[in-house]
Amino acid sequence: MPDVSSFSPDADEPLHGGYTRFELELEFVQSLANPYYMNHLASQKLFQDPSFIAYLKYLQYFLRPEYTKYLSYPGPTLKALELLQQERFRQDILSPDIVGRLAEGGVLASIGGK
Question: What DSSP letter does each residue of 80-113 carry, written as one string?
């Protein structure tokens, strides 16, 4: 889990499995940068659930600099969050071709496009 030691939650904030809500949301939003994970969520039909779509919209608070600073890989994480706001992308991520292209693009970006 990323270092959130500079994040100071409310003293009365409940813990969930030993983690604050922010820490859990941070872990989840970062996992969205993995196209295989997005594909898994789509295959479970979560992207068809209006409450889950609302949750993805809520998570856009990570676009604000005071929260972006906690992301280990802000570029891919925020791009995935942006794409997931689009219904078309939420449907397209079911395609193995799309998932493969996204995964390949991430690998190429990590090695400088070589």
Answer: HHHHTTSHHHHHHTT-HHHHHHHHHHHHHHHTT-
